């Protein structure tokens, strides 16, 4: 996790850790909202899949990650990039298709990754990143490295065959991989009950020989309660796990989707469980001056976003003659197996 490496082993550090987490959720929400606004101004290339409302689970799962771990985010997981330390300006440039972005202007947000920070780009085929996570975990196991792979997926993707294949293989080999289901109740416009015959995706873990956990993804503390011990256990060789975070996306599937398939009451119900507000109540109960804290953090986030947008807007468009750059790895003699053509 970027600069939030405070170890929560003593009271002072615990407070600092919690404030860091609050900051992360606010930064992610701020970033999401800014991207939606920029989308309406026609400044974002490609689709925008807002993760607003899901910040609690992103912060709770990413906080216990360590250097060398790999994460496979989903299309709604801008927050993963931020928490892994990707510069907000670079991320914004990626969304605008500019040279300064992760793919140097060759792609929308959707497929961008940053391997130097262990963030794999996602693919359009939902569910297909899980076998990749399993491959990364297999490498950790073979090399006896104490790292883990974390793969996010939606409850919609949970119905895909490669998700089951990945989990089955991970279970058989007891791989260091944690599967995180962001169950936000809708796969595009398909509600949960129309695509699953059971209530909890987590129940499926038993079929692969590992444990499944359910928590409220809108309650950061509940996510941490599950994620911290589960990730630690997997890191120590305890094998895979499945964490299902029940949550809700405030926006439609993407910004062009008005989400008319759900009621206003339902949205209101979930907004009343907002992960940031919920954490503010907790901080207040612990004696923090939340009003002051919120103002300070809002100011900081505003400044970071302003800088990010400026960086992205000032970043050039990619040169036409760079279109074939970065498509293939530069071959090394080792890769060619001694054969040079
Ligand atoms: C294999 C596959 N089928 C269908 C789609 C089209 N599609 C894109 S996002 C989406 C909904 C995904 O729902 P879910 O997995 O629950 O994630 P969420 O968008 O709710 O976060 C669908 C059906 C796709 N990208 N890949």
Characterization of this structure:
The chain is of the alpha/beta class. The protein has a single domain (about 10-315), classed as Rossmann fold (3-Layer(aba) Sandwich), CATH 3.40.50. It has 10 helices and 7 strands. It has helices spanning about 10-40, 55-60, 80-85, 90-95, 130-140, 160-175, 220-240, 265-270, 275-285, 290-315; strands at about 70, 150-155, 175-185, 185, 190, 210-215, 240-245. The strands form 2 sheets. It has a 5-stranded parallel beta sheet with strand order 1-2-3-7-6, sandwiched between helices. Strands 4-5 form a two-stranded antiparallel ribbon. About 45% of the residues are buried. Residues about 1-10 have low confidence and may be disordered. It binds thiamine diphosphate. Thiamine diphosphate binds near residues 124, 125, 160, 186 and 253.
What's the structural blueprint in terms of helices and strands?
Layout: H1 11-40, H2 55-62, E1 70-72, H3 78-83, H4 88-95, H5 129-142, E2 149-154, H6 161-173, E3 177-183, E4 186-187, E5 190-191, E6 211-216, H7 220-238, E7 241-246, H8 264-271, H9 275-285, H10 290-314
Parallel strand pairs: 1-2, 2-3, 3-7, 6-7
Antiparallel strand pairs: 4-5
């Amino acid at each position: 996790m970027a600069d939030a490496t405070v170890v929560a082993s003593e009271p002072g550090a615990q407070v600092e850790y919690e404030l860091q987490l609050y900051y992360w959720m606010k930064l992610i929400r701020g970033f999401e909202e800014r991207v939606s606004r920029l989308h309406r101004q026609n400044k974002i290339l490609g689709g925008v899949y807002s993760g607003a409302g899901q910040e609690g689970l992103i912060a709770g799962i990413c906080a216990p990650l360590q250097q060398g771990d790999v994460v496979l985010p989903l299309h709604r997981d801008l927050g993963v990039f931020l928490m892994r330390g990707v510069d907000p300006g670079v991320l914004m440039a990626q969304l605008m298709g500019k040279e300064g972005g992760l793919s140097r202007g060759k792609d929308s947000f959707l497929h961008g990754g940053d391997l130097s920070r262990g963030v794999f780009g996602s693919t359009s085929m939902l569910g297909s990143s899980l076998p990749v996570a399993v491959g990364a975990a297999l490498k950790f196991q073979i090399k006896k490295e104490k790292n883990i792979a974390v793969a996010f997926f939606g409850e919609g993707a949970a119905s895909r065959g490669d998700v089951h294949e990945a989990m089955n293989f991970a279970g058989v080999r007891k791989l260091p991989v944690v599967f995180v289901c962001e169950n936000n109740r809708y796969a595009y416009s398909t509600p949960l009950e129309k695509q699953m015959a059971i209530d909890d995706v987590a129940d499926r873990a038993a079929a692969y020989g590992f444990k499944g956990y359910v928590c409220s993804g809108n309650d950061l503390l509940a996510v941490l309660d599950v994620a911290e011990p589960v990730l630690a256990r997997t890191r120590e060789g305890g094998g895979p796990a499945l964490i299902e975070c029940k949550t809700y996306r405030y926006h439609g599937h993407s910004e062009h989707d008005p989400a008319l398939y759900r009621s206003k009451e339902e949205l209101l119900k979930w907004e009343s469980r907002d992960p940031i507000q919920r954490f503010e109540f907790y901080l207040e109960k612990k004696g923090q001056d939340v009003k002051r804290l919120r103002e300070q953090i809002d100011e900081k986030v505003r400044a970071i976003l302003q800088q990010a947008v400026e960086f992205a807007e000032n970043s050039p468009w990619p040169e036409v003659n760079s279109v074939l750059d970065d498509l293939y790895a530069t071959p090394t003699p080792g890769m060619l197996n001694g054969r040079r053509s």
